Amino acid sequence: MDDAPLKLVSQAGAQLCRLSRPNKDSLLKSLREVAESLVQIQHACSSSLEGLEKKKLAKKQAAALLPMKEFIVKREILRHADREVQLLVSVCVAELFRILAPETPFADKHLRDVFKLILGTFSELADTGSPYFGRRASVLEAVARCECCVVMLDVQCGDLVLELFKTFFSVVRAYHDKSVKKNMLHIMSRILNEEPSQRLADVILQNLIKEEEGPSQLAVYIIQKCDYELEPFVRGFFNSCFLNRDAVENDLKESYHVVLYEVYKCAPRMLLTVIPYLSEELRTDQVDVRVKAVNLLGKLLALRGDQFAREHHDLFTELKNRFSDKSVDVRRSALHCARAFYIANPCWKASEEILSAFEGRLLDLNDEVRAQAVVIICDLASSNLESFPPGLVVTATERLRDKKLSVRKKALARLMKLYQDYCIKCSQRLMAITNHFERIPTEVLMLCCIDSKAFRSQTTEHTLWEDLFPANLSAEERTRHWVHIVSLFTPLHWKVMASVLSKQNRLQTEMRTYLSLRKNEKENTSEVMQKNIKKSISKMSASFPDPSKAQECFYILNQLKDCNVFSTLELLLEDLTIDDLQMKRKEFLKLVGDKHPQLDFLQLLSLKCSFSIFNSEIIRCVLVHLSSEGLEIEQKKASAKLILAVVSIFPSLLRGSETEVQMLLEDDTLAGELVEVLAKAGSHIFVEFSDFDAFLRRQCIEGTRVVSKHAVSAIASMAGTSEQVILSQLCEELVNSLRCGWKTSTVLQSLGCIAQHSLSTFEIHGEEIRSYIFNIIFKLSQSDGPACSEERLNCSDCCQLKIFGLKTLVKSFLPHQGSHFKWAIDKMLAVLLKMLQTGDTSDGVFTCENDKLSIRLAAAKSILMLSNRWDLHISPKIFQLTTLMAKDSSPVVRKSFLHKTHKLLKKHAIPVRYACAFALAAHDPCEDLRDASSKYMGDIINDYVRDSQFNQKSAGQRETFTGDPAYMVVYLIYILAHDDSFPLEECQDERVYAQFCSPLFWVIQELTRGSHVKDRVDVANGNISRLLCVFYAIKKAEDAIDPQGTPKLRILADIGILMVKSLQHNALPVELTQGPVLLPSSLYKLSPVDLKYVSGSSDRQDFLNRLIPIQKSGNFMPAGHSNKRSRDLQEDKPRSCGTENNALVVVSLPLQSLIAPETQGIVAADVSLGQMLEYALSPDLESEGLCSNHTATEIQLGCASTSCNPISSTDSATVSPSMLQPEALNQKSDGYVQSLEDTCIFNREGSMSKRSKLSSAVNTRFSKDMIVGFASNHNIHKTSAYDTGEMDLLCLETCEKAKNSSSMEKENMSTEELYAKESSHCELLACPSLNVLKDSTNSSGVVAKKSTKVLANNDTASFTGAKGKKERDVAPSKTTGEVSQVVRRSKRLKK
Questions:
Q1: What are the Basic and acidic residues biased-composition ranges (predicted)?
Q2: Tens of pLDDT along 622-681?
């Protein structure tokens, strides 16, 4: 053994001891030499000497090292300020401990300072980049090797031990060398083995939950190595936290759940007795504790999964109970825990129990829990698509219809992501296509039915376009999925799909129109062009979720000057492949720029304009799929229906697939669908018609009625120029088949369709066909027929054949083109009238009752169909019988008729007056029909309100409202007045009247209080105004067919007025509708003598005071009939419509006593036809706020109108040369002086001046009694009211009340003053040949005079002025020019 290092240390130590104040440099030099020498000195025990020799060596080393020990313990050296000196001294100390072990090199009194020096060196271990790190690591290694730190426990340096632990945790780093961590771990574990304590355990646990990897990893190592030593202290800590956390004096008590989880990760055995305490926390009343316990338990389950669940089964059961915890936070935490457990153990049996708990939370009362359940289920399904329970996915999909918007949004986003993952798996053939996942798109499609701004159909369409499939999914793969998707469709799905495609088609069509207009804008910059562009933009904006914002974006887009943008947009409208479409969209967005402010809108626009859902590529793939073998019949049918749904909207998409279509002609199972496809898209494909001729002809003769109908359409669309020849040959074949009695029902259908496509071809054999129908088919007889079920009419075979023949005849009057009919429509209508009345098709033929029901129903439906084109020829009797089918004895007939009426009204294919059927069925004994009637009526009102608003925006206000649902009361009142069940004159039972008038009340209620207008006060008030105008107009007319029915009309009009007022939404004034109220001349005419109203009585008031409440309460209903809306009305608080003097006044008197208005303010004069009638406006109309801003309204046949300018003398009118002068009376009613007047002007001798009939709801067609001209500058309507073609000129005026004149002021005015005052508010009308009306005053002295200026033109002429004006006679011999002068003088007088 070399003694040189030992001697060097001894000499250096002696030398250093002699220096009182050593120089720093010399000190550092000496310490370096000593440190290097000490490292070279071996421990005596490590030498190869024998025992005695080892002892001698140990003594020798101790003696040699004594000087150095004495130098180190000097106070100034242990506490030297220089860090390098301290480090070298630490190295020497550590080596001395090593060399002299097991003896301590220093006395106990110096050991504390020595260990502090060592700890100071350890505190610098974090700086691995320091040049002294190696020496510090050597000190750590030396201390660990000699285990000298244990000495601190012997010298009562426990605080230094605690500091040592804290120092190690503070300096340890993840990037430290393993030897460094190992030495630290050895030192701490050696101390814990000797003397563990709670303080040391707390330090370890505190560092265990740190986020830094170094301290937490070191703590894990210590716990794993010293688990037995630490176990009592750790368990004690957790037990204290579980039992009495508040008493624990440790900062860890607030996060003990986290500590427990970390300890369990590294030493689960240590916590076997602690874990069961969690069950108590799961049941505690403290929500935060339950949440933490659930979160901890979830982590533990995810950590050890099935093993933990088996070891702690009670705890696992309690966790499942937390899914139904009363706290939302606990339930949400339980869901998170279950998610972690399932991901860690997807195949274990307990996972099924967890998933069943998820299913229950999908119906949780809290929307946050439901949303979280959907999100977690989708995440779990994506992580394990192959084995995840598909039923749970279906249940989660139902949350797309959740009542909360937030749940629907999250469900939609996650389900779309799940479906894309599923599509990718299927494309990789890792899993098969399953119906459970394919239900996701079907439910997404149904979001279009949700009435929500966030889930409008436009938003759902974007989801289908952009998010349904992965962007790189091929057309073939998309087709595979579409085939399975549509196989799950219900009729409602198909309807929604058609709606989505129709909206896309409308946008594309309008975009093409817009681009075309923009191209022509440079050549034509007229105002009309700009108006068309604005109109086109408005239509396109309606296809976006926010139309107003979209319209702004369109206007900004319209300002772009880059033509390439619009050229690319035009290319997007073409039928492109999926890859080309994506490329063009990127090109379009690149032209726009990433920083464009409307980038999001333009992205959506490029998507909507393109064929992103279906294109010709997908259609071709579907056709190929149909041709493949092994395809189930259901999928075949669904695939064919998909093609039909697409080509019905986009027929051009079939182009390019002609070969595939022709290959399917041999498949009889798809014949019907294929024929319909050809009917829709036959004109858009390029084929030889001869390839399809035989197939289509065979379907026309041998197919079903539905197929034959489409086959004829397909022939007409594909035949091209040879259409007439082919149809003529087909018609001859069909007639031959008809003679032979072969497939008569199909042949009749085909013949009817040929008549619609080519009437001239049909008429070649028309007489023979009609003769066959009338003489053979209609005369078929069957003694008995099958019974009628509650669901359908089981008519006999011969009855069905009669109905088919009837349909053929009806179709011959409804050609698509042309109007040259050889058989008169009147004959057809006479046949239908007979069927409606008797249910028989021919005299002398026995027909059973079931067949009669079917025939009457078929006749009524035929009238509906014919009303589209022949409404002007349909008599009131036919209309009444048709509408009364809604009250037929058979519920099947009523249901079928109402459904057909609704269907045609929705298409605007028949006039709105047929909606009367819904009112007649509103109180049907069948609850389903009552609900259907309300729904149907709501649909019609909504449609017409939407259409009217659009028409007003585009074309201004309409002059009449004959197309509005409110106008149907004109016909409903007429139907009720001619009903055989109208109460008798002697009837004084208000319940009888209430029940009879219930249809009228129901209509008024639907128009003013229905759910569809509940939040639309403007719509409700508009309907109130129109209804009042109609009722007042009817009161000034009489029955055109049966004058005896006039009193009934007026009774119903009076009751209608009272009903409207009783249902008025609010106390705000409602303006009367401006413009004429046109009454149909076929039903109403002017009454030559207006019936005088009897003054009111208390009996009459009591009667009407009882009538309306009974009507609202619905107490007249049959037993068991529940009227929900009547119950709602009973809950309404009574609303005051005016003053107390204007209460609802009704009579309990015979029939003639009820012919009165709601008050006695109207007094009618007995006048002759063609005379100017004068009515005082009822005070109810003014005082109840129903005539706001309108003081007096001149009504043309009971119509409210705007004021008109006087016509010049050059205008002419047909007038009567002889007139009678009536008395103009005014009466005081209920303390109100009648100062306002309704004026009705009639200009035609011997007949009413306005007989314009109700316009058709389709294409606004009128009858021959129609308005043929309108002079806007004079507000004059020119009507052709008679078969002779004579014309009437009608002028509607408004006389406004002087705003600052009261009734008392008028009483004190002279005639001249009143004339001058009123003339400033009235327009004058010059009409030849009207007699003079004399002045008259009432008992109060109020002037109620109207004067007529008489002018001479040939025989006589008259000049009509405003009320109260002084009369001026004009000589009978004045010429036309003189009439003009009078008009001008009257104007000056007004000034």
A1: 1125-1135
A2: 999 888 877 788 888 889 999 999 999 999 999 989 899 988 888 888 888 899 999 999
Please spell the DSSP secondary structure of 167-232, one letter per residue. HHHHH--TTS-HHHHHHHHHHHHHHHHH---HHHHHHHHHHHT-SSHHHHHHHHHHHHHSHHHHHH
Of 1291, 1294, 1293, nearest to 1190 by C-alpha is 1294
Contact (CB, 8 A) for 1390 and 1203: no
- The answer to whether residue 822 scores a pLDDT higher than 80 is no
**Which one of 50-54, 629-633, 820-824 scores highest in mean pLDDT?**
629-633
962: amino acid identity, one letter: T
Take residue 237 and report the two structure tokens written for it.
Answer: 């800590």
Q: Can you give the C-alpha Rg of the chain in angstroms? A: 49
Distance (Å, whole) CA 1159 – CA 1179: 8
- Give a three-class secondary structure readout of 1042-1059: CHHHHHHHHHHHHHHHHH
**Tokens (6 digits) for 1059:** 């009903």
Lowest mean pLDDT across 514-518, 938-942, 1212-1216: 1212-1216
pLDDT of residue 1284: 34
Please say whether the beta carbons of 360 and 324 come within 8 A: yes
Residue 599's pLDDT band (cuts 50, 70, 90): confident
If residue 353 lies in a helix (H) or strand (E), which one and from where to where? helix 349-361
**Cα 346 to the chain's mean position, in Å?**
38
Q: Is 1200 exposed, middle or buried (0-12, 13-18, 19+ CB in 10 A)?
A: buried
CA distance 207 to 220: 9
Q: Is 983 helix (H, G, I), strand (E, B) or coil?
A: coil
First to last CA, the chain: 143
Would the pTM of this model clear 0.90, i.e. be above it? no
Residue 1169's pLDDT band (cuts 50, 70, 90) = very low
Nearest-angstrom CA–CA distance, 169 and 217? 10
- CA torsion angle 325 326 329 332 (round to 10): 40
- Round to whole Å and give the CA distance between 469 and 473: 7
Closest to 71 measured CA to CA, from 2, 20, 24: 20
The model's pLDDT over 1029-1069, given as tens digits with 9 standing for 90+, comes to 899 889 888 898 888 888 889 889 888 888 888 876 554 55
Cα dihedral 1149, 1155, 1156, 1157 in deg (nearest 10): 120
- The predicted-structure confidence for 1256-1299, as pLDDT tens digits, reads as follows 333 333 333 333 443 333 333 343 333 333 333 333 333 333 33
Who's near 81: CB < 8 A, 6+ residues apart? Answer: none
| Phi, then psi, of 208 in degrees rounded to 5 | -65, -35
According to DSSP, the β-strands at 1325-1327 and 1294-1295 are: unpaired
Number of neighbouring beta carbons within 10 Å of residue 806 = 25
Quote the CA–CA distance of 883 and 860 in Å, as a whole number: 8
Amino acid occupying residue 172 = V
Closest CA to 1200 of 1061, 1294, 1085, 1278: 1294
Q: Which residues are bridge partners to 1280 per DSSP?
A: 1266, 1287
DSSP codes, 1213-1278: ----S---PPP----EETTEE---EEEE---STTS-S--PPPPPSSTT---SSEEEEEETTTTEEE
Length in residues, the chain: 1391
Express each pLDDT in 571-587 by its tens digit.
989 988 888 888 888 88
Give, in order, the Cα–Cα distances in Å from 668 to each of 127, 697, 698, 749.
Answer: 87, 14, 12, 20
Of the candidates 441, 409, 396, which has an alpha carbon nearest to the alpha carbon of residue 422? 441
The answer to whether 180 touches 133, Cβ cutoff 8 Å, is no
Nearest to 256 by CA among 315, 215, 203, 206: 206
Cis check for the bond before 102: say yes or no (omega within 30 of 0): yes
Q: Is the pLDDT of residue 1013 over 60?
A: yes
